[in-house]
Amino acid sequence: MIVTTVTVRVPAKVNLQLSVGPVRDDGYHDLVNVFHAVSLFDEVTASPADALSVTVEGPAGVPTGPDNLAARAATLLAEHIGRRPDVALHIRKDIPVAGGMAGGSADAAAALLACDVLWGARLDRETLLELGARLGSDVPFALLGGTAVGLGRGERLTPVEVMGEFHWVFGYADGGLSTPAVYAECDRLRAAGEQDSVWPRVSDDLMAALKTGDAEALGRALYNDLQPAALSLRPSLGEALAAGRDAGAVGFLVSGSGPTCAFLAASLDHSAELAAALNESGRFAAVRPAVGPVPGVTLL
Ligand code: C5P
């Protein structure tokens, strides 16, 4: 059978725990990172073409040249299997751009799987994860999905079992934040003595909340070391988070390096009420309910 076009769906992530260790010699930080995939999806379609190209449907701000992470994924996979990256990639974006939800990494993961199928490479999961890690720290998790602890740069993954599902509401901001700039601000705050730096470990309270499916306990255990840095660079995030607290979220935090805010609801009904109140607050460019965990890259 000749495959003519392949479409892959890929979820966004929120970090339930993002504990940042000291900066390493390679410039990255060792992390204890608990990833959680949620039902906000991008779709990447790969079709045969004379040369590599990228088109994007959705919000502005996504590069379409060789710097696009999906294009880099296609090039890396083509090199790995020894062929030309002659593919047209079309990305339908719903994950916020530079929003702290790993949208670019998601597109890279989706492009890896889409090209793998289109080109009949059928690489095993380990190889795709390894290629993914070369593209970015969050790419392996976008392949895997679900909920997982990520160590090292975040690429050494161990799946975590979760009871049931959790109901979230995400508040999108106007404009993104640069991940390297937020890590640099975290380093600056620590050097200035404004934020503690301890060697991180996985939170027992968080693991217990996930195992029992207890939303209130999960809400109390949410933790993000990058939040003070994101707030320092974007002070209006303080009011955005307060809007969710006032609206009765059982937990809230900045997602990854931000500026998207994640609010946890007690139930599906509660998430609808929470979304309405957050819309009403006028603090967000868009308000989106979602559930987690959901699977990683999926062939449509
Ligand atoms: O791996 P990725 O390219 O997605 O990382 C983007 C940036 O985030 C890095 O250049 C680095 O500044 C920062 N980062 C970090 N430590 C990590 C992951 C990312 O400092 N563990």
TrEMBL record:
<dbReference type="GO" id="GO:0016301">
    <property type="term" value="F:kinase activity"/>
</dbReference>
<dbReference type="InterPro" id="IPR013750">
    <property type="entry name" value="GHMP_kinase_C_dom"/>
</dbReference>
<dbReference type="Pfam" id="PF00288">
    <property type="entry name" value="GHMP_kinases_N"/>
</dbReference>
<keyword id="KW-0414">Isoprene biosynthesis</keyword>
<feature type="domain" description="GHMP kinase C-terminal">
    <location>
        <begin position="206"/>
        <end position="282"/>
    </location>
</feature>
<comment type="function">
    <text>Catalyzes the phosphorylation of the position 2 hydroxy group of 4-diphosphocytidyl-2C-methyl-D-erythritol.</text>
</comment>
<feature type="active site">
    <location>
        <position position="13"/>
    </location>
</feature>
<keyword id="KW-0547">Nucleotide-binding</keyword>
<dbReference type="InterPro" id="IPR036554">
    <property type="entry name" value="GHMP_kinase_C_sf"/>
</dbReference>
<dbReference type="InterPro" id="IPR020568">
    <property type="entry name" value="Ribosomal_Su5_D2-typ_SF"/>
</dbReference>
<protein>
    <recommendedName>
        <fullName>4-diphosphocytidyl-2-C-methyl-D-erythritol kinase</fullName>
        <ecNumber>2.7.1.148</ecNumber>
    </recommendedName>
</protein>
<comment type="pathway">
    <text>Isoprenoid biosynthesis; isopentenyl diphosphate biosynthesis via DXP pathway; isopentenyl diphosphate from 1-deoxy-D-xylulose 5-phosphate: step 3/6.</text>
</comment>
<keyword id="KW-0067">ATP-binding</keyword>
<keyword id="KW-0808">Transferase</keyword>
<keyword id="KW-0418">Kinase</keyword>
<feature type="domain" description="GHMP kinase N-terminal">
    <location>
        <begin position="68"/>
        <end position="146"/>
    </location>
</feature>
<dbReference type="Pfam" id="PF08544">
    <property type="entry name" value="GHMP_kinases_C"/>
</dbReference>
<feature type="binding site">
    <location>
        <begin position="96"/>
        <end position="106"/>
    </location>
    <ligand>
        <name>ATP</name>
    </ligand>
</feature>
<comment type="similarity">
    <text>Belongs to the GHMP kinase family. IspE subfamily.</text>
</comment>
<dbReference type="InterPro" id="IPR004424">
    <property type="entry name" value="IspE"/>
</dbReference>
<dbReference type="InterPro" id="IPR014721">
    <property type="entry name" value="Ribsml_uS5_D2-typ_fold_subgr"/>
</dbReference>
<dbReference type="InterPro" id="IPR006204">
    <property type="entry name" value="GHMP_kinase_N_dom"/>
</dbReference>
<feature type="active site">
    <location>
        <position position="138"/>
    </location>
</feature>
